[in-house]
Amino acid sequence: MKSLLTVGRSVAPIYGVEKATGTLRFPADVNLPNMLWMKILRSPHAHAKILDVDAAAAQKLPGVVAILTHNDVPRVLFGPYQNEIYPLDEEVRFVGDTVAAVAAEDWNVAEEAVRAIRVTYHVLPAIHDAESGAKPDAPDAVLNYPEAHEIQAGDIRPEQLGTFGNIIGLREGGPTVVNERGDVERGLEQSDVVVERIFRQSEVNAVSHEPRACVALYENGKCTLWCSVQDPYRLQDSVARVLNLPMDAVRVVATNLGGAFGVKVTGRFAILCALLARQTGKPVKIWFTREEESLDSHNRSALTHYVKAGANKDGSLTAIKVRTFLDNGYWPYGGLGQNIAFAICTRPIDLYHRCPNVKWEVFAVRTNRPSTGPYRGRADAESHFPIESVMDELAHSIQMDPIEFRLKNRIHEGDDLCSAPKKVVSTVWVEEAARKGAETIGWERRASLSTSSQGARKKGMGMAMVIHSCGSNPAGTSQAEVTIDSEGRISLFSGTADQGSEQQTTLRQMVAEVLGVRLEEVGGCNADTLTCPFDSGPFSSRTVYATGIAASRAAEEAKRKLLEGASLLLDEEVGNLDIGINFVWARSDSSKRVRLGELARLAGGSISGKGIYNGKNDQLFAYGFAAAFAEVEVDVETGEVKILRLVSSHDVGRAINPMIVEGQILGGAAQGLGYALSEGFYFDPRTGTALNQWFLDLHTPSILDTPNIEPVIVELGEPTHPFGAKGCSEISYVGVAPAIANAIYHATGARVTELPMTPDVVLKALQDARRSSA
Amino acid sequence: MESPEFHEITLKINGRVHQLSIPSNWTLNDVLRNRLDLTGTKRACDYGGCGSCTVLMNDVDVYSCSILAVEAQKKEIQTIEGLGDSENLHPLQKTFALSYAAQCGWCTPGMIMSAKALLDRNPRPTESEVRAALSGVLCRCTGYSSIVQAVLDAARVMRGET
Q1: What is the pLDDT of residue A161?
Q2: Cβ separation of B39 and A115 shorter than 8 Å?
Q3: Of A233, A227, A274, which is closest to residue A254 (Cα–Cα)?
Q4: Residue A85 DSSP SS3
Q5: Would an 8 Å CB–CB cutoff place B142 in contact with chain A?
């Protein structure tokens, strides 16, 4: 791979110093003079109709400035896809749903006012899990929603979708999505071995450490919001719609977020904050409590998968049959539930492209739970646990090495994709990732590992193979602008928030490389809708890929203009010119040169280039691939699982900044470890009340639970990206749970089919294994 | 519940004395963030569960969300703002900033203050001592390895070894 000036180097993150000195202003750190505090009254019922709201007593409390109920807000759809129903509605659809909002002079008063509001509810029947909700006679989880809505983004072609009972889909009684090819029943019948299992995964919360905040300022007919959102342009659009303002009268700033992981999107709280700012004429701030951050979010769905899969003794995969029930919550992230359903039943099938017979149905079911949505590793964390567990068991049944079995059936470069119709996959470095990961963990030790087990503590090793989006998603658009001012200073304007991935560092490295300047010369700003061009946002690990392409194109255009300007001035052909350290030089005569700032001055003060990326019409589709490896020690008496080693090996195309790439892999794998072993978000099955919405009860891994995870990077390039990069922030999450489950199976012969794999779940699997072998 | 009474209190923060009138139910965290604009100290869990709000009180790392402001009187409080600034970084701030041990940056001030308390009492910690000392602060982004390394590196710098 060509050695470059800045790309490929582990330069320090641009926001590092501000983060380490505590001077970085997150939305929650914005305090304005005369600011009011907003608090939300939340529903105690899983499903109810509001008959009456009496806010008179609350309104009279000293310090209360304004109260909004469903009678006071515009009946306008909003949300990431403009299909969430009204900023406040008369129907409440989960415990914690928004009923009313108060603005007061301090939060003590606002809280008191919230408690003083009297609401009369008519309680309605509620749905507490997907499978009950899918029954034909089940009551409706949600009564009031837009009749039908168009899918505006994602993997499925636009369709008018309806809701049949609580199942979101295209036809009565049918699944939300089905992925079918060949004849799955015949395929299973003719298989040498068949494995059948039921898998259950708990709902999980992203547990971003920054609770969502919004500060809204309304003056001179314009509204400015500092808000914890990954999609500032969609929030801008929603605020403009609800407040009936032109888009240019709304500004959203979301430069830095304290973690987001896919779920910090346009929400009710920010819309209400803007409405209150307009009504009161004062700045208004809301900052969620942890309880609110847990409830008023988008969690990873609870899932049940009924899986049957077959293989022949020669190692060929013959059939995969799955029926998945997905708990969508009250409202699947503005309609994205369908897209998650689609990706669940297509991506693993693309990974095992050689499998001829497939039928995978997904039922996305509306329930009276908080919303679900695309949390890190979206759709693939949901699907890989069952599929990679079953792959492991099939390999075991035909006595084949689990790596070789997977590689025999894997996708290859140029294969067509069922997850992205009419597109073919670009590079596939999954074999290289699997081999390098195997070498790192010492896969050859696996056969003799059991001999080092001591007493009740059994050792084992397992792996999982992974496909996940790396930015090549036709749903998104990214724009970027690169300017050179008369001082010669280069600025990158990008619409992406930094939620911790330090993408601005990586993007500026690409811009510096294109322009042939030092990284220190590149500055800029990000995620401010007033100054930065549109970006769909940092979702699905898309920034380095999609925004990276846009930023590189912008830099190319700026470079072209610089060279053309210099060509006229120096009377040299463009082809004979080079940029380096603040100057354009003539290659033949280094005394012929001109400062970049001078070129900008001659052009009227500034030179700029713009770039855009939207992959809709590209035929090549880039995917990220990975392999996760776990070595574990299982205590068969207590059910405790100790992680001895965890290796996360990745096809990243090319690491623009290896330190950041490795940091993302480590962080994603650590979150995946939580999903595997400890994290679950639980609700009372009768009332729908959250049982563990507080921080410690969500059991995210601590420093004592997390081993030194070993990242492995495979850099073999990706031709659709100017520097060959693939996004990799999410994918490391996905393989951890199945790799650990497979390691437990190897250690003990017990197949764990539930997440999280807490000691009680592991003990139950051990009992089941003993019973079936007896 | 009635609105809380106000108290006149005196706090010493980063060497400066502040005289304040605050509601009796305000925590030290509330005062730092909302009265003194010392927003480097974060809040994430509300109840002493995550460590994002860690500050030093008489050189001991404590959760500022779980200490009432009235209790913090007559104590030396140090926050991340008192440790160093961009012109004059503390070795911990430097190693965290340069090595991507601060990803989203939300837990970082708490991590650094907790690490400072450790290094002040034990300038030569082992990896497991670092892990034990920081176990009261949770991080969601890094997977912790880079944080442990940043603390060990800063300890070396503070001992004058590099």
Answers
A1: 52
A2: no
A3: A227
A4: coil
A5: yes
What distance in Å separates residue A203's CA from the closest CA in chain B?
18
**pTM across the whole model:** 0.97
pLDDT of residue A337: 65
Last residue of a domain, one of B65, B82, B99: B82
What CATH number is given to the structural domain containing B103? 1.10.150.120
What's the distance, CA B54 to chain centroid? 4
Instruction: Specify the pLDDT at position A616.
Output: 86
What are the chain A neighbours of B94 within 8 Å (beta carbons)? 20
Ranges of beta strands (E only) in A312-344 are: 317-329
Nearest-CA distance from A17 to chain B in Å? 5
How many domains, in total, are found in chain B?
A: 2
Provide the CA A738 distance to its chain's centre, in angstroms.
19
Residues linked to residue B27 through DSSP beta bridges, in sequence order = B68
Both A432 and A288 in one domain: the answer is no
Query: Looking at beta carbons, which residues of chain A come within 8 Å of B153?
Result: none
For residue B18, give the CATH number of its domain: 3.10.20.30
Q: Which residue in A18, A26, A670 is closest to B144 by CB distance?
A: A670
Same domain as A735, residue A667: yes
Q: Which residues pair with A643 in a beta bridge?
A: A632
Q: What is the mean pLDDT of chain A?
A: 94
- A711 φ/ψ angles, rounded to the nearest 5 degrees: -85, 140
Query: What strands, in cross-sheet order, belong to the sheet with A710-714?
Result: A457-469, A623-635, A641-651, A710-714
pLDDT score of A31 more than 50: yes
Split at pLDDT 50, 70, 90, the class of A335 is low
Q: Which of A19, A208, A693 to probe by mutation at the B interface, max B CB count within 10 Å? A: A19
Interface of A with B in 7-26 (CB under 8 A): 12-13, 15-26
Sheet containing A478-485: which strands, arranged edge to edge?
Answer: A522-526, A490-494, A478-485, A606-613
* pLDDT above 90 for A453: no
Q: Which of residues 86-115 of B touch A (CB under 8 A)?
A: 86, 89, 92-94, 96-100, 102-109, 112
Classify residue B1: in a domain, yes or no.
no
Q: Domain ends where: B82, B102, B124?
A: B82
Q: CA-CA distance, A567 to A579, in Å (whole number)?
A: 12
In this predicted model, what pLDDT tens digit does every residue of A240-274 receive, in sequence order? 999 999 999 999 999 999 999 999 999 999 999 99
Disruptive mutation site among B79, B141, B157 for chain A (greatest number of A CBs within 10 Å): B141
Query: Which residue in the set B1, B102, B146 is minimally distant from A19, CB to CB?
Result: B102
Residue A301 lies in a domain: no
Confidence of residue A476 (pLDDT cuts 50, 70, 90): confident
**Residue in A closest to B88 by C-alpha:** A21
Residue A45 and residue A123 in contact, taking contact as beta carbons nearer than 8 Å: yes
For chain A, how many structural domains are there in total?
Answer: 4
User: What stretches of B26-138 show up as alpha helix (H) in DSSP?
Assistant: 28-34, 91-98, 108-121, 127-133
Q: Among A554, A587, A613, give the residue marking a domain's end.
A: A613
Predicted ipTM of the assembly: 0.98
Pair A571, A638 in one domain? no
Q: Are residues B95 and B135 in the same domain?
A: yes
Which residues in B lie closer than 8 A to residue A263 (C-beta atoms)? none
Q: Which helix (H) or strand (E) holds A433?
A: helix A430-441
* A76 assigned to some structural domain: yes
Domain that residue B95 falls in: 91-158
Chain B residues within 8 A of A258 when measuring between CB atoms: 42, 44, 104-106
The closest CB to that of A209, out of B47, B104, B135, belongs to B104
CATH of the domain at A626: 3.30.365.10
Q: Are residues A606 and A679 in the same domain?
A: no
pLDDT per residue as tens digits for the range A40-75: 999 999 999 999 999 999 999 999 999 999 999 999
Structure tokens at A611: 């770039």
The answer on B66 and B19 residing in a single domain is yes
Pair A488, A554 in one domain: yes
Same domain assignment for residues B36 and B75: yes
Domain, as residue range, for A598: 16-23+473-613
- A144 in B contact zone (CB under 8 Å): no
Contact A23 B40 (CB under 8 A): yes
- Same domain for A641 and A749? yes
Given a cut of 60, is residue A303 above it in pLDDT? yes
Q: B100 and A663 in contact by Cβ < 8 A?
A: yes
